[in-house]
Amino acid sequence: MTAQTPPTPPFRDPQLPFAKRIDDLLARLSLDEKIGFLHQYAPAVERLGVAAFRTGQEALHGVAWMGSATVFPQAVGLGATWNEELVRRVGDAVSKEVRAMRARDDRVGLNVWSPTVNLLRHPLWGRNEEGYSEDPKLTSAIATAYTRGLRGDHPTYWRTAPVLKHWLAHNNETGRDISSSSVRPRVLHEYDLRAFRETVEAGAVAGVMPAYNLVNGRPNHVSPYLREHLRTWTDEDLLVCSDAGAPSNLVDSEHYFDTHEEATAASLLAGVDSFTDHGTDSSTIVARAQGALDQGLLTEADLDAAVRRQLSVRFRLGEFDPAHDPHAGIEDFDTPAHRALAQEAAEQAVVLLKNDGDLLPLAHDTRLAVVGLLADECKLDWYSGTLIHRSTPLEGLYERFGAERVEFAEGVDRVRLKTSQGACLHVPLADVPDEVRGAEGALDPALLSGRTDLPPLTTDATGPGTELALVDWGEGVLTLRAPDGRYLSVAEDGYVRASADQPGGWVVQETFRLEPHENGHLLLHIGTGRHVSVAADGVKVAEEGAEVFELLVVERGEDAVARVAEAADAVLVVAGNDPHINGRETEDRTTLELPPQQQRLLRAARTANPNTVLALVSAYPYTVDPTELPGLPGLPSILWTAHGGQAAGTALARVLAGDVSPAGRLPQTWYAADTDLPDLLDYDVIGSRQTYLYFEGTPLFPFGHGLSYASFSYGGLSTRVELGAVHVSFTVTNTGDVTADEVAQLYTRAADPSAPRPRRELAAHRRVALAPGETAELSFEVPLSAFEFWDVKRGSRRLEPGLYDLFVGASSEDIRLRTTVTLTGEPAAPRDLLQRGLPAADFDEQSGGELVDRTKAAGDAVTPVGDGTAQLVYRHCDFGAGVTEVTVEVAGEGAVELSLDGGPTLARLALPAPTSGPYDYTTLRAGIVAEGPHDVHIRLRGPLRLAHVGFSG
Question: Is the pLDDT of residue 627 over 60?
């Protein structure tokens, strides 16, 4: 007899819908197997032939952490292109490299944790480089393009499964796991949710990652918004993956729950499906989930919901249909097309900020001095892959203008460090191969350690010691580099070696600080917090025995810069930041100013040569004032580009030479001074007038700004309102003499709003290439929903009837055409106090207060900051024919005072004694006589929480 072939289980049948196949597989999994799936590293189920699965593959601007890959410009640079079609192609290339790399290394995952859609609300945020824009419309447009490229075009099978980061209102690294973003309803719906919503609704998103922070006092990993908003935006199953270590933070640092079992259950019930915690070791999360089940905090049905969403992604990725997966054989890796695309993206990201006197483009026979700390650098960030190809600005200019026409001075201070015994530090020669950090790939690069195969530094009692290149990156944070290009670094054994190709790592081991001490300096190693000492077996860091060094300056960087600058026809100063220092994940910036050492180099170049061009290569804006270098006339030309990836130098050189006309546009406001900025933790973009939407000052460079080597005229503006949209068309003509791109921008503004609205708001844009004399007619269809705002009086969106201004131009401030349209909508209505009362969070204005969680599960309340006093104003309240009683729902201790229209206090409701906890609300009552329309003013005194104010009578 011949044994019968066992029947194919339904979950293996590609003819069945995914939903039925998931039902079948879910029914076959045991409870223990389901629990195992909750961890980032889901184990294989060998009895069913189900492979292991890992959520999470970083790919923000190329495949990261897994070794060599094509490196595209940073995300903020992609945002500066204002070009969705280009960014879609970048996403397409990245997803193909993910597939190609996975074919040879199964550590590479297909669940891609990108893009980042956090809005660039505040330019001091350390992770500014990861976002696309301060504007929700531009952010969602670029993010949608990237996710579509990552997903691929197949109707059934996804090339990769993108996860959006970081849900929600996450713009600070300072105390990021314990700080709470106070986000009132209007800011929530009009600003922070928008970029997520519009990207999810576009249909190429597989999930989101909650952020480390809290919003309104509640950790994002137990956010009710996951259920109330996110999952209502699409019919697809969205996979919610926790950020690394965040589940443990709920107990360990945030102290939001008493036990990890409670925290795990609350996260799962809120919507977290995959727990990224304790690295590759799933045992802790498995034990917590099992404990939550045993305590009755979870049911198997709760687990099923999470596992189903994970399986949905895995089915869409073709895991269970290898014969039908159209992406399985992809081998596109480091192709000529990908290299060309990296260069194209880098070129399109360059923004020309200023070009007085048309100094740019440079003539082909220009004798050029290239100076600056980033002139011969191709910097990577934490989410970069390892470079296969590398082009620095200097290399690009050598190639474009010829090495004989280019002189270089880096501008570092060349120094020696002399010990108290009279000997100088010495870097021993070492015959070992160069090694690039992370070149072999690592699932967690934070665990990579420094090199110990090189000899530690020694002292040279008879010779001059080693001359080191010192760079001060600001705030006294230094790097020291040996003549062979290696940076001084400290490995786990504590010895100081010249061993690192670049500063980097989760904890940077290549930064130091010189601390004045007696007649010299102590040298503090920032990564370990220990001082450098000299021992018989080498130079090391230690708790005791700190060496006192004398800093011997061999040459000041500004002297070298001045020397080459004065002999050149023009000078290019390349300044900016190192993405691992003073502004990165875990560390916010403290100022917008360019570091003093780089200011000195810029001043030296400009003093020596008036034809000085400043190229800023940075992850964020600076306050480089183009007209006020002390004692000097302004800089004639300034460019900015984010760190542009592998082709950054070639791209910049081609723009400087005029081979490409610059057409990047600023994706965020460049402010003139630190004093223009609100506090980093102030998330109320409306109340504190943040971003171009509300900022009332004069920016250094406005949102959307960027110049060209061509000129453009606009005309023929026409509008019509029909079929639920405003239709806008106009023409753009290249009136210059070179082919160039223009980025046409359409903004809207409510002419006479009943509540504070944006000064202007981006509604649409298009990047268009035009030959000299060529005209393009551009048409846009702006849905009426784009004109709505969140009306706190009714708790929903509303289109206000009336006049709306439409602005067309080359930036948010460079307006060329304007018109007005009249829209019909729903008239404003007063707050119906008898029906809704006043939810405390629905204020129109406030001072001294912040939003907190009404309960751990849902809802908001308001409390004074620091147990002081808060003022809340609720406009246009209707008491109808009259009320006789007011009630307040409060917890804590203190008093609530009520007045009308800013008049005397009509009612004071004080807690007779503190409630037993912050969530133990009680209702207080007082008599009040009021009728008709009024503004209600509420004053909170003391550490209490106000959830709701009601009226009756």
Answer: no
